[in-house]
Structure formats: C-alpha cells, structure tokens
C-alpha cells in the first residue's frame, strides 16, 4: 500500500472520530472516555491540544508538500485548513445553547495546530537526513 494512501486512510478515520466528538459535544452526549477529561483541571484544554495536533499533523502529511509563503515563512496548507475549520467550529458555539465559546480552548487548539505543523517539519528533516 502506498504511503499517501495510508495517510489518507488515517485522515479519514481521524476526521470521522473528530466529527463524532463535535457532534456529541453539541448534543451533550460525549462518550465517557472524553467526559473523563473534564474531571481533571485543564483536561479539556489538553484534549483540544492533542486533537488539533493530530489533525494538523495528519492533514499536513496528507497534503505534503503543499505550502504557501507569507513574509518569507513557509506555512503548510493542511495547517491552514485545520485552523480555519476549528476557528469556525469554536465560533459556532456562540450560537448553540448547550455550548460556550472559549478563547482559551481556541488558543489550545491553535497551539496543537502549531505542534502538528512542527511535527511534520521534524519528520521531513529526518527523512532528508536519512535519504
């Protein structure tokens, strides 16, 4: 199986899981293993960080090497897509009765996106050294 196809499968599975979490949160039916995060101080923030780090990493792996330059800095398209999607999702919470917009949640999500982006960069550097 080609590497690109494997990444695509991972992305689709992760996206389905991620969308399920959003759906369940919107309807107040989060599964127990996710609700347990809320028992720990900052647990939900950690969840935002980890989920978005994985989302960014997988999106960038799938779309690699697509990128664009801003002021001479390279930004990956996968990170931009995830950033736009999670920003829209967090803002949408302002319009849902059982959800609340939280700037700290959004900040943790952004930090996760950055971490996923950095992970792809590190992996790329290691590949270049080995090859």
Written overview of the protein:
The protein has a two-stranded antiparallel ribbon with strand order 1-2. The protein is 71% helix and 6% strand. By secondary structure, the chain is mostly helical. It is globular. The chain is built from five helices and two strands.
Helix-strand layout with pairing:
Elements lengths: L2 H24 L5 H4 L7 H21 L3 E4 L2 E4 H16 L10 H28 L1
Antiparallel strand pairs: 1-2
How would a crystallographer describe the biggest sheet? 2 strands, antiparallel
Low-confidence stretches: none
Q: Span from first to last CA?
A: 20 Å
How much of the sequence is in beta strands? 5-15%
| Protein structure class | mainly alpha
Q: Which key features would you list for this structure?
A:
single chain; 131 residues; mainly alpha; two-stranded antiparallel sheet; 5 helices; 71% helix; globular
């Amino acid at each position: 199986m080609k590497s690109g196809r494997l990444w695509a499968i991972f992305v689709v599975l992760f996206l389905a899981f991620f969308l399920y979490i959003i759906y369940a949160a919107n309807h107040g039916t989060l599964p127990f293993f996710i609700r347990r995060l809320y028992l720990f101080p900052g647990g939900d923030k950690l969840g935002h960080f980890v989920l978005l780090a994985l989302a960014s990493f997988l999106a960038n792996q799938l779309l690699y090497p697509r990128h664009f330059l801003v002021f001479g800095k390279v930004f990956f398209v996968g990170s931009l897509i995830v950033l736009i999607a999670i920003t829209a999702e967090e803002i949408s919470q302002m319009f849902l009765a059982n959800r609340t917009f939280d700037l700290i949640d959004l900040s943790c999500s952004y930090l996760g996106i950055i971490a996923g982006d950095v992970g792809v960069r590190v992996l790329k550097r290691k590949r270049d050294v080995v090859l």
